[in-house]
Request: fold
Amino acid sequence: MTQRKTKGLAIVGGCHYTANGLNSLLESCFFHSQLITYERLDDIHESNNAVQIIAVINECNINYSDIQWIERRLAKVGKANMLIVCHDVLQKILSCVFKIDCLYVSHNAPLCDVKEAIVRLLLERERVPHQRMNTRLTGIESRILMMLAEGLSVKEISEIRHRNIKTISSLKARLMRKMGMPNTLKALSIISIYMKSLTSSGLKSHH
Reply:
């Protein structure tokens, strides 16, 4: 699809209900020169730097190629040009593990918060809070999270990485705390659901 390289807004997401809802919200509450919907992120030509993006994503419609696309996009145009609408756990994974530093709003956010996030995107006037930098996982924490998501125990990870089991246990507790998640098996199982789709095509070579 060819676009004019003028300021425009793209809504990305396979859920037509959500895309249509955002479309209606934008048409009724905001003025924007161009509004286009796409099924996937890579449907947007990478040379089109003028368009701003609202991406509605979940564990079923995002993979590692999408992560790479977002990274390239943000490196070129900056974080204020993209708003990601997703569940809270997926946001934590994208921001903490993959360092995707852009604007976010929860799938479950009230309408007033969605409107505010869109205004921030369109005006490009606010930055993502600085404290997000302090919650990013280190390389070793990211690798341990991936191993935990694959179903490995702390003991198994300590043997594979030749590290003291207490060290691995401490790293596990710290990375879960950074992500704002309880240090429980249930929380890990939830994270694992999201990680599986993101690690299906190349995450192990990411670090």
Remarks:
- Residues 103 and 128 are 6 Å apart (CA to CA).
